[in-house]
Amino acid sequence: MTQPIKDLHTVTLDADKCKGCINCMKRCPTEAIRVRDSKATVAYERCIGCGECIRTCTHQAKRAVYDSFDEIFKYKYRVALPAPSLYGQFNNLDNINIVLEGLLAAGFDDVFEVARGAELVSEFTRRKAYDLAKRPVISSACPAVVELILISFHNLKDNLLPVLAPVDVAAKLARERAQEQSGLAPEEIGIFFISPCPAKVFALKCGLGGKAGYVDGVLAQSEVYFRLLEPMKHVKDPRELSKSGIVGIGWASSGGEAAGVLKEKYLAADGIENCISVLEEIENDKIKDVDFVELNACPGGCVGGVLNIENPFIAKSKIQALRKYMPVSKNTLAEEGKPDSYYLWDNTPETMPVFRLDENLLKAMEKMQRVEAILEHLPKLDCGSCGAPSCRAFAEDVVNGIVKESDCTRKDERQAT
Q1: pLDDT average, residue stretch 298-318
Q2: Residue 66: helix, strand or coil by DSSP?
Q3: Long-range contacts of 41-47 (CB under 8 A, 24+ apart)
Q4: How far apart are CA 117 and CA 390, in angstroms?
């Protein structure tokens, strides 16, 4: 069901389709990609699963990894966990119950909305957040952002809210309900999340904050979308299956989570470059009058994930229209009656020193000096023609023995000037 972290890559490369361009390399926020011998390569210890390489690859050489829809039929009782962003993928949709009915017709026995988990997490955050993390409290709902902090912003680890993502909470509740309703053994029940992005695939299968195994599989919204089109056409009088409101559905797009916290002093940013900019400002102590920070690696929030079908801005507009006549919220902590530990991280993710030049501190310092010396002789154009995303990254590759300094094709231009 799950794989070890070292073996799981949720973004892979089709070498046959790769043309050796540098689009993906230049967009990668953690400089995890190099282009060597006219093919891209990925240093997976740096990959945060944000999907930027998938988004920018014009040759479709980058692929997201997820489970096949047919995996659901391995289980006697099957539960779908639709993300709120799924509702924004369909045209002329005026009732999300039609989508839920479509999921049941497509092969699921039950549906448990992730939006329900989102409403519980929103209330828990309102009540507990500022006792659990440093201010400004940074949401941990986007796994790509969490990974980014663990890799690149070690000083902000204590600002991360140690609360499970809505899908983790929804999965736990869904499994409890499925066991009660079906009477089946846990291994006979399949819980499947319908994901908008590869980062959530990684988080759920490997256990980022939560335990690996809350779900039995992660499906792509793009694949499920096409599975739903036909059965949804035949839904004439949908039952009232949805048990979520404005707060939960609002998590689909940027700002929805922060709005659900009901605090005035919050900041919401989306798009990986904007997230990095905000994290740098927090790290440099330039953001002071903010209590809560919501960051989404995808543009527009989860509606902008690379496993979606619809344009994120159109999807956001559709979801706003769907929320118009919904109640504010349908889920409360009191109704669920769970202890605080039910919503907290099962394990605390550790920072990852992936940019360290050497395990030995003295050797690392020596290598850093060599990097600076090499950098002095480079053109500092960050052109990428050497196969590295920046001149500094190239200098680090030289010091680590991956390439030669002579591999810089534009070094002579600097010397000529």
Answers
A1: 96
A2: coil
A3: 41/13, 42/9, 42/11, 42/13, 43/354, 44/9, 45/352, 45/354, 46/151, 46/354, 46/355, 47/9, 47/11
A4: 41
Q: Rounded CA gap, 336 and 120, in Å?
A: 9
Domain boundaries, the chain: 69-342, 357-417
For CA atoms 270, 138, 169, 199, give the dihedral sign: positive
State yes or no: pLDDT of 7 exceeds 90: no
Indicate the range of 102-116, 244-258, 323-337, 399-413 predicted with least confidence. Answer: 399-413
pLDDT average, residue stretch 181-192: 95
* Residue with tokens 């499920």, as numbered in its chain: 224
**Cα gap 33→48, rounded to integer Å:** 12
Strand order in the sheet with 77-82: 110-111, 77-82, 189-195, 217-220
Roughly how many angstroms between the first and final C-alpha of the chain, as a whole number?
Answer: 58
**373-401: b (≥16 Cβ within 10 Å) or e:** ebbeebbeebbbebbbbbbbbbbbbbbee
Using alpha carbons, select from 167, 198, 174, 191 the residue that is nearest to residue 83: 167
CATH code, residues 357-417: 1.10.15.40
SS3 state at 388: coil
Longest dimension (CA), the chain: 78
Instruction: Please give the DSSP secondary-structure letter assigned to residue 288.
Output: -
Q: Is 32 helix (H, G, I), strand (E, B) or coil?
A: coil
CATH architecture of 69-342: 3-Layer(aba) Sandwich (3.40)
Q: Rounded mean pLDDT of 124-138?
A: 93
How long is the chain? 417
Cβ atoms 193, 114 nearer than 8 A: yes
Strands 189-195 and 217-220: parallel
